[in-house]
Predict the 3D structure of the following.
Amino acid sequence: MTDEPVVLCDIDARGVAMVTINRPRVNNAYNGEVVDALLEGALALDADPNVRLVVIRGNGRHFQAGADLKWLKAVSAQSVEENIEVSRRTTNAIRNLDNCSKPTLALVHGGCFGGGTGIAAACDIVIASEDAVFSIAEARWGVMAGPIFPQLNAAMGSHNVRRYAQTCERFTAAEAWEMGFVHELCPVGGLDDAAAPVIAAILSNGPNAVTATKGLIRDLAGLEIDDEAGESLARGHAAKRLSAEASEGLTSFAEKREAAWYPGAAS
Amino acid sequence: MSSPVLETRDSRGVVTLTIDRPAQRNALDSVVMDAMTAAFAGVAADASVRAVVIAGAGPVFCAGVDFGWLRQAQAQDGAANRADSEKLAAMYQAIDACTRPVVARVQGGAWAGGCSLIAACDVVVADDNARFAITEARIGLTPSLMLPYMIGRVGLRQVRRYCLTGETFDVETARRISLVSKVVPEASLDAAVADVVDALLHCAPDSLLQTKALVREWTRPPASDAAIGLAVDAFAAGRGGDEAREGLSARDGARPPQWATGSD
């Protein structure tokens, strides 16, 4: 066991905040602790006058493998209210990142699944190395990715979300680039080199001009998710997690078998 | 004094508007803005016009707004600064709202306000050496006036990158993100524009009017008066602000602005 924080944050002299999701042994899968760290971290970095831009990446072999399904199963055994609260915090973690008034840059390598795609979609810019692979796989486990759909629709186009969130198919970095979700591709191991000119470009711009630009882009595009919409997303998310279908899906994952709804699956 | 926007019209009803300030890389000052807006008012009033082509004289389509025009804001009160910003917004709005199809002929490239011009057009033909950048934030301005058009044109995802970074991108990238419709070798630019115009003239005029009106109505976000009002507020705030003062002063002194060096 280790006492290392599940999310690391380092702010350099230029005002570049490097946020690293740090649960490499479970492919940076998120649990309540990671959600809380992202939820509060996004607000703190937004409020910190020394921070000019935020970079997010994953430690280890993957960017972020989505929810920790063991944790999710445990949550689903808790009360309705507790489930709503977990979903509220998950929803707000993505909302806070999406709302950050400073530019945000995701550096994606390896797996980027479920909530990981939500993190990438909530960032302004995504650079991925060629080994990156994506999926919006919630429905595979009988749960539902509602809290990240607003960001995914905006980042991938709803025509792509309609495919990938319903089939749960994986898509490659090159496919993500073609659909515009990923802005830039780089060789494996080349994320820092690829990010450097983008970071330098942002730092050469007037900080207030950048913040004003981002704010107006968000206003004109109608990206704001108000509290009522956020609460609705959270409640739908929690209700699906508490369904019999989710129970079967998460159990099938734990038992490494097909879920009962798959034709021909042994139940 | 001759107009900085040359207007020609052929027997088919094709109007060509050429920004004619090649020594200033066709930078947009208040005279150009007024002339362009007036030209589009003329098009609006003349039902026999079937298509408009916007071009720039010399090696570069348009370098953006004129730095002298930007600098004026330092000596202006809020009302005069806002009126200038409205003038620029009115030009983009006149292009976007033109009921007839508008084609941009882009050689060399477009920067900042030059990108706004083409974002408000329907079809953009560019040569294969053209380069583009949305550089407003480099000098402490916001590219706010283009956003109602640019978000609809290239999509939110690309706007979030290129408006926040000011990075230069090549014509192939511009085509991939749909800022540019067609890329051709420089020697073929006129022929390629002529092909697009010819295609437009094959289409029935009333069909095109209705088609363009519906496309504009269903574009999200709409370039509504409310959206443009917000954009003008943001542009005027940037143009008259401290960052623009520093950005222009740094440019005059051929030094990096304070925010780029990290020093105070």
About this structure: The two ends of chain A are 36 Å apart (CA to CA). The mean pLDDT of chain A is 95.
